[in-house]
Design goal:
Layout (H helix, E strand, L loop, with lengths): L1 H8 L3 H10 L4 H15 L30 H17 L4 E3 L5 E3 L3 H16 L6 H14 L17 H10 L1
Length: 170
């Protein structure tokens, strides 16, 4: 998980392009299934089930954690955005149909690939082995690590995700 956050912290456009190109076409569906599984476990999750969860970072009203990995998705999103601003400035942003600032390609899809990997590594109990491999596939092609073993054997780092996220923030 730390590796995913470190990549998000420093995401040059050539690496973003490789991540975006390597993202599996069905990754949105796998990410959504993991979110639905998490919502099924939450006290107020029923209110939020069935929506489009592509790129979703948090659902604060569903349960106490807000997401399957606590603040992890929010931290990852912030790291990608800050990295983009540092490396290319305002040129990496566009305005979406809702009038919100959004990352341009390939950073937008690279961000999704990093969210996918964070879900697979940070909430392995929510994904079946096929979805775990699908969600981690883009990242594994670029940086095989002990956490992304390359054979689909994903492991959560010792100390859990919360400890790993806190280390990156500090």
């Amino acid at each position: 998980m730390v590796e995913v956050l470190e990549r998000a912290r420093s995401l040059p456009e050539p690496v973003a392009a490789k991540l975006a190109a390597a993202r599996a076409p069905d990754a949105d569906h796998a990410y959504g299934r993991a979110w639905q599984s998490w919502l099924d476990e939450q006290p107020d999750g029923a209110l939020y089930r069935g929506g489009d969860n592509s790129g979703l970072l948090a659902v604060p009203g569903a349960g106490p954690a807000g997401s399957p990995i606590g603040d992890g998705f929010m931290v990852l999103d912030r790291l990608v955005t800050d990295s983009a601003k540092r490396s290319a400035g305002p040129a990496v942003f566009t305005v979406d149909e809702d009038g919100e600032e959004a990352l341009r390609e390939p950073l937008a899809t690279a961000r999704l690939a990093l969210l996918d990997a964070a879900m697979a590594l940070g909430a392995p109990h929510l994904v079946d082995p096929a979805d775990a491999a699908l969600l981690a596939s883009a990242g594994e092609q670029l940086w095989p690590t002990p956490e992304c073993s390359g054979d689909g054997g994903l492991r959560v780092p010792a100390g859990g995700v919360r400890r790993q996220v806190d280390r990156v923030i500090m």
